[in-house]
């Protein structure tokens, strides 16, 4: 009985990055590698080596190592109009990027493991004055929020077990109306949450 309990506890202690991968996980990374090769970022030899390694990968950590030095591939989301009440983002390996003109929903649920997501609110359409973002950021799951004047972010209810929480408050103009209040809740289990202004404000 003790041996069975020890085995069960050992399974529960497996880090998220050491979770076994699926065929879909391998296929997704192979697509990323082939796109990079088509752009001239990888030599034919590197392409063959990485594809072979991706197909033989056993864990999420193995796959993440094969795309770590490749540039971020923007993926623009186009949510329906009018805004949805709830938008869910769940990503293992790779990146998700929302930028340009997109409609802000009332609530977002974001779960990341060994994957990154960026939400750029610079040109977003504010269909509501309040957005709740519930996060579950596992090991290697990083979320970046880019805001602008008129947006206020609070993350007081985020539980940090592992990872970094960094909210850079803007120098808000008291005469500028608040268009959107973003309330971030949830937990960090090894991932990072960063809130900042864009590098350059237009």
UniProtKB/TrEMBL annotation:
- The domain of life for this entry's organism is Bacteria
Q: Which residues form the DUF1707 domain?
A: 20-71
One Pfam family, short name: DUF1707
Q: Which InterPro entries match?
A: DUF1707_SHOCT-like
In terms of PANTHER family, this protein maps to:
MEMBRANE PROTEIN, MEMBRANE PROTEIN-RELATED
Instruction: Tell me the protein's name.
Output: DUF1707 domain-containing protein
> What organism does the record attribute this protein to?
Catenulispora pinistramenti
